[in-house]
Structure formats: structure tokens, C-alpha cells
Write a structure and sequence with these properties.
Largest sheet: 7 strands, mixed
CATH architecture of the largest domain: 2-Layer Sandwich
CATH superfamily of the largest domain: Fructose-1,6-Bisphosphatase, subunit A, domain 1
Low-confidence stretches: 1-27
Strand content: 15-25%
Number of domains: 2
Number of helices: 10
CATH topology of the largest domain: Fructose-1,6-Bisphosphatase, Chain A, domain 1
Strand order of the largest sheet: 3-4-5-6-7-8-9
Shape: globular
CATH class of the largest domain: Alpha Beta
Mean pLDDT: 91
Radius of gyration: 20 Å
Helix content: 25-40%
Number of strands: 14
């Protein structure tokens, strides 16, 4: 019976929407107090540390492939349930756009069992129906410009890196009428493990992950000092970089008369590298696809803005987070320090034109 409840479809969700439908929510509540969002940052701090511990004891049967061929682990799903449960208890029921759902583990019994075991270990007090309901909750799928508060969650961005020992990060953002007003991303592989958090107008702050309440926050500010022509500029490339990708990344930098140095990362860790002064440029192109998923970028948009980085599209416009589950209005997400953003945007815009890519 428990397995059947786990596998059942979205139609009996307590709230939320099935994919592609509008659905309904609980009656509107007052807006989330932005001054209270340190509680959400605390949740992400705890969740990142829990994921780090779970990764050290990750059995092979807890790793499965989704229908699209990408991998997911029981930790991804358990962490989404843990985070959404904590957010609901602190802030009430809200619309949520999240990556995982009841189909993520594909009915793999061992992975589902490991997910439940993790939740028990983490103190989750709900039952199977609660797990199902919380996973349904992340299926919001319509424009957010008219909605007061919408959470955007990727419990583990970079699951392949999580499994392989490369970069990964839990990522949370809050949209208010389609604009990011809060972000909190855990970066366990950067600077010895840090949490970066931002509230609109309050700056971006770095907190050590392993220090608990004793850690002192540090306000981040990226360099705006332009590099000297001919000097080295660090550009982020994927972990598994093909020769053509490496050439393309170098060309973006060399077009400005600089020497290119590749720094390797996937997930929102690529943006974290820029904010922590371990890279100068990170970008993700849309290409010919339908648009990037919002949970892979929304948090970084606000973190970058509040840290003083340049973040925008190839035409210089801001990143539009209001369209629903995808950034379908943008051709790229570009994050740059040292005043390099406009030049990078121009190079990528020309490349899009040459390749016939565009909105």
C-alpha cells in the first residue's frame, strides 16, 4: 500500500498543480516577511550539511536514471521533501517550482526505501502520504508575475557531480511577482564549504557550512576593475568539456584581447565561482532548446546582482524569471565580474546570429 501511494499520479494532490494545468491553491496568505528569510537560509544550511553526510554513505541502489536519461539519487528526493516540509512549517503553504516529483525515482524500490530512511534519520515526521503531497507541491507550472510568493527549488543542482565528487549545490530562491527577492545556495565544494544567501537590497553574504551558529558571515562584492589587455581571464567550462566547447569558451575571452584560462564546473557552482573570485565569467546558452529550467539559475541571478556582478542576456536585458518552469524568454544567462559582461554578451549574441539561434 505504501508503494502504491508513492507511485500514484498527481491528480489527488492536496494542493499544487499537475504539469500543464492551472489547478488551485489554498486561500492567499500575507506575503512572506523578507526579514524572516534568515529562517529559510538556516533551512538550506542544514539541508546542505545533511546532503554532505548522506553523500558519504550513498549506496549504488540509491542512484537511478530518469526517463530523460539524467541521473537522480534518493538524496535529491529526500532533500526536496525535507526542505519543502521545513519551508511549509515556517512560512505556510506556497506555490513551488521544483525539479523532483513522485516519478523521479521511477518506482525503484531500493531507492525509495533509502529516501524514506534518510527522511526518518533527518527527523521528518510525516508519512507516505505527506511525502507524496510534498513532492506534488513542486509542480507549479504557470507564469509567476501575478503571484506574490513562489519558491523555486533544486534540491541538488549537479547530481552527476554529487555522485562523481565534483561540484554540486542545493539551490533555493523566492520569486515575488516573478522577480527573485531571496536566494540561498549551498556550495559544499567551494571555499571549504559555504552557503551564499541574499535578500533584495541587502547584499550577498557568505556563511561557512561547518561552523553552525559560530560562523561569521562575510559580505561578498565582486571586482569591477577591468582586466589589463593581454592578462588572464578565467572562464568557466563544463566538467566534461569537449574540444569544441573549450575552443568556444576561449574564443569568448580572446575576442576581448585577453588570455583565456578555463575553470571547470557545472550547476550553479559556476556562478558561485565568479562570486567567490575563483572565475571571472560563467554563462549558460539556451541554444536551440526550449529554454533553461528556472531552478538551475534563479538563485544565482539574485546572488550575482546583490554581489555587484553583471548578470543578463545576450542583448543586455535582465533574466526573466516570470515565465514558469523555464527561462523561455532568454537566450543565455551570463554572469561576469570585472566589467566583462557586455563584451561577453556581444560575442555570444554574434554567435547566436551565426548559428541561427534566437528567441
Amino acid at each position: 500500500m505504501a508503494v502504491e501511494r508513492w507511485r500514484q499520479g498527481f491528480e489527488d494532490c492536496h494542493y499544487g498543480t499537475a504539469r500543464g494545468s492551472v489547478g488551485c491553491y489554498a486561500p492567499p496568505m500575507h506575503r512572506i516577511d523578507l526579514e524572516a528569510l534568515d529562517l529559510a537560509a538556516d533551512i538550506m544550511h542544514d539541508a546542505t550539511n545533511l546532503a554532505m553526510a548522506a553523500r558519504r554513505a550513498l549506496p549504488p541502489e540509491a542512484i537511478v536514471r530518469k526517463h530523460d536519461g539524467s541521473i537522480v539519487t534518493a538524496v535529491d528526493v529526500a532533500l526536496q521533501v525535507f526542505i519543502l516540509d521545513a519551508l511549509e512549517r515556517e512560512f505556510g503553504v506556497r506555490p513551488v517550482i521544483a525539479e523532483e516529483d513522485n516519478e523521479s525515482l521511477g518506482g525503484k524500490l531500493a531507492a525509495e526505501a533509502h529516501c524514506r530512511a534518510l527522511l526518518r534519520e533527518w527527523g521528518f515526521e510525516g508519512d507516505e502520504a505527506d511525502i507524496h503531497r510534498l513532492l506534488c507541491a513542486g509542480s507549479f507550472d504557470r507564469p509567476t508575475r501575478e503571484v506574490d510568493d513562489v519558491w523555486v527549488l533544486d534540491p541538488i543542482d549537479g547530481t552527476q557531480g554529487f555522485v562523481d565528487g565534483n561540484h554540486w549545490c542545493p539551490c533555493l530562491a523566492l520569486l515575488r511577482h516573478g522577480e527573485p527577492v531571496f536566494a540561498s545556495n549551498g556550495y559544499p565544494t567551494l571555499r571549504g564549504g559555504v552557503l551564499l544567501s541574499a535578500v533584495r537590497g541587502e547584499g550577498t553574504w557568505s556563511y561557512p557550512l561547518d561552523a553552525g551558529d559560530e560562523g561569521e558571515p562575510t559580505r561578498l562584492g565582486v571586482s569591477r576593475e577591468p582586466p589589463v589587455r593581454g592578462s588572464a581571464v578565467r572562464v568557466v567550462a563544463p566538467i566534461q568539456t569537449s574540444e569544441s566547447q573549450a575552443v568556444a569558451r576561449r574564443a569568448v575571452v580572446e575576442a576581448g584581447g585577453f588570455e583565456a584560462r578555463l575553470v571547470h564546473a557545472d550547476s550553479q557552482a559556476k556562478y558561485g565561482l565568479v562570486l567567490l573570485d575563483e572565475a571571472d565569467i560563467a554563462y549558460s546558452r539556451r541554444g536551440h532548446g526550449p529554454g533553461k529550467y528556472i531552478w538551475d539559475h534563479a538563485g544565482a541571478v539574485l546572488l550575482a546582482q546583490e554581489a555587484g556582478a553583471w548578470i543578463g542576456d545576450t542583448d543586455g536585458r535582465p533574466i526573466d524569471c516570470s515565465r514558469g518552469r523555464r527561462l523561455e524568454a532568454n537566450n543565455a544567462v551570463i554572469c561576469a565580474a570585472r566589467g566583462l559582461g557586455p563584451a561577453v554578451a556581444a560575442v555570444l549574441s554574434a554567435r547566436d546570429a551565426a548559428e541561427g539561434v534566437g528567441r
